[in-house]
Amino acid sequence: MKAFSKFIVLFFTVSNLIAQTWTTYDNNNTNGSLPLVSCLATDASGNIWIGSYRSLVKYDQSTTWTIYNSSNSLVPNDNNVVDVAVDNSNNIWACTYASGLLSYNGNNWQQYIPSNSGILSNFTYCVGFDNPGNVWTGIYSANSGNAGLVKWDRVNTWTPFTFTDNNNYKNVEVIAKDNAGNIWCGTAIGLYKFNPTNSTWTAYTKENTSGGLGGNWVRVIAPDAAGNIWLGAMDFVNNSYVGTGLTKFTPSTNLWSNYIANSQDPNTKVVSAIAIRNNDVWVGTGFCGQYNGNGLYKYDGSTWTNYVNDNNTFPTSCVNDLVVDKNNNLWIASGAGLTKVDFNPTAVEEYIDTVPTQFTLNTYPNPFNPTTKIEFSISKSGRYTIKVYNSLGQEVVKLVDHELAAGIHSVTFDASGLASGIYICKLNGENIMLSKKIVLMK
Known about the structure:
The chain is mainly β. 0% of the residues lie in helices and 51% in strands.
C-alpha cells in the first residue's frame, strides 16, 4: 500500500542568523582562482575541491588555492569539470565534458576514456562509489552504445547499464549511496535504486508513485542518516521543464512527501542542490545559467529560512552545489563563486593576570560593526560563560564556556553573519550574572 502526502506548502520566514559567519570567495579575492563554480567535494584532510568551467581547484581552508589544469595535470582547459567526488581512499575523481573520467591520488593522474577503458563515452556527468569500492560513472548515452551508467571494479570489469523509455536511452546525471549501501541514480525518466545484495534495480517515476515523485527528471539526490532520500526533480509541463520543489522519500514506509518553500514563487521549486547538516536540510535553487532560482534555503522540519542577494550572507540567487566539510561547515557553489558558512566562528580570548576587586562587563566599541571587544573582570576563579542573545532572548553565540582564573579577560565578538539590531551580552558564573546591551549597526 503506497502512502503519499501531497504538497506540504510552507512559507519561509527570515530569522536571525545563529552563530554563523559567511565568507564568499571569488576571482577578486583569490587571485583569479575561482571562475564560475559548478561542483564541490571535501576530502578527509578538510580540503575543498572545486570544479569550475575551466579547471579543478583545491583550497586548503587557509591561504593556498591550487589550480589544476592542462599545465600541471590531466584536467582540460577547454571543457567543464561537472562533478567532483572523493572515495574512501581519499582519491579525487572528476567528471568532464569531452575528456572522460579523471582520478588523482595526490601524486599521479589517470584518465579513463573509451580508448583505454570501459568508460564508453568521453562525456561523463557524475561519479560515485559503493561500499566495496566500485566506481559508478554516469555517461552520455548517445555515443556510448546506449549505456547511461558504467560500474568499474577497479580491476578489469566494466559493467554498463541502460535506462530506456520507449526506446529513448537516457543518461545518469546524479549518483548517491545511502546508508544501507544502495546506489541511487537520477535520470530524465525517473529515479532508480540498485540493491547490491540481489543486484536488482527498482524504478520510481511520477506515474508509478502517483505523483509522489513530482517529476521524472531527477537532478539531485541526497540520502540522510535516517534512511530518507531527499530529491530535486523537474517535470515537463506545457513543452518546458519546471521545478517540483523538494521531495523526501522514505523507503521503509514507501512515503513520499513534497515541500515547497514558497508556492507563490516558481523559482523556489527548482532544486539544484541539497546538503544535510545535523537535522537541517539545506536546499539550493536555480541552476546558474540554466534556470532562475531564489537563493539558498534552510529547512529545519517546519520553517524555511531564505538567504538570497544579501552581501552579509549569500550574495546571489542561484546555487550549483552544496557540501558539508569535516568541521560541519557548509560550502556553496554559485555564480558568485564559493561561499563558506562557518557555524562555529573562533573567538579570540585574552587574559591579564591582575585580580580585580569586583565583577565587571564592558564592550567597546558599542555600537559596533561588525566586531566588538567584550572585556570582563572576575574576582574569583571558576567556570564562566559569555553568551550573546538577540532581542527575542534567543542565544546566537556562546563565546566562552570554561574554567577561568581570577583576572581581567577579553574576547572578540564577530557579528559578520548577524543582522543589525540590539543584542544582549551576558556573563554568568560563580553566583554572578551581568548583562550589557550592545548595538550592531551595519
